[in-house]
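Q: Predict the bound structure with NAP.
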Amino acid sequence: MKLETTRVLLTGAAGGIGSAIAEKLAARGANLALLGRNDDETGPLADRLKADGAIVYGLSADLLDREAREQAINEAHQRLGGIDMLINCAGLMSFRPFSEEDPELMARIVQLNLTVPMMAARQVLPEMLKRGSGHIVNIGSTFGSIGFAWFAAYSASKFGLRGFSEALRRELDGTGVNLTYVAPRAVKTKLNTDAMYRMAEATKMNMDDPAWVADKTVAAIEADAKDVYLGFPEKFFARLNSFLPRLVDGGLRKQNQVMGGFARDA
Ligand SMILES: NC(=O)c1ccc[n+]([C@@H]2O[C@H](COP(=O)([O-])OP(=O)(O)OC[C@H]3O[C@@H](n4cnc5c(N)ncnc54)[C@H](OP(=O)(O)O)[C@@H]3O)[C@@H](O)[C@H]2O)c1
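A: Predicted complex:
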């Protein structure tokens, strides 16, 4: 997909991966509605990208508030004059033993990582279908293909997002609307808590820079890719887990024990 003058609505725009994606899209001449949780973050980001000549609007809403979310998407539509691309990037994570998980937080994780992308896609899709063109991009995770111990709520939400992406992509076949699912492995952003960083160091878990993830995401969009799994060997294990899950159980057993020590301290 050509990005120049494409009208993009990006959620999670002020986050580590979101802001890196915003920069890459602005550099390619896309027109952007950057949706974050508060103006203090999206405003300065929009101003910075505008100063480089891009057309950018900074918007804010709590995506878990249905009315506020729908209003913000309508505002993005109005400001941009339409939405050609929706990128669902906002997300929330928890690293904790499931038996100690806060039920309120679990509900927010599933809502933000799964229900909100579905609702946002539902809101923008009719116009895309009418036009016969558009693109929905869902930012998933390796944990959406490999269920990771101590990340049960997060894994469940990302498995759901991957299932939704696959089903909707098949439904949209031949309509001119594309769907790309991007699954990064761990990324150095504030989504990860101190305990998560300590665990990653102890287990030698690979962690990517958000700028690299943004490069790969934009390349996947330009190539109209269906799904992209970032990083080796994670992309291989994501496939292996689907047909040899017992092998992956065994491979992860020792690492799970080490991770558990950090999750209990989180
Ligand atoms: N970092 C990783 O290791 C990693 C790995 C694989 C996939 N991902 C996925 O990549 C995406 C981006 O994550 P990130 O690493 O860039 O994390 P991040 O820096 O924490 O960004 C997430 C963004 O979502 C926003 N958000 C959270 N709750 C919200 C709400 N109720 N309403 C509106 N916005 C809300 C956050 O706003 P606030 O700052 O106001 O909270 C933040 O800007 C997520 O979907 C995540 O699951 C991340």
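A: The beta strands are 7-11, 31-36, 56-60, 85-88, 134-139, 177-183, 227-229.
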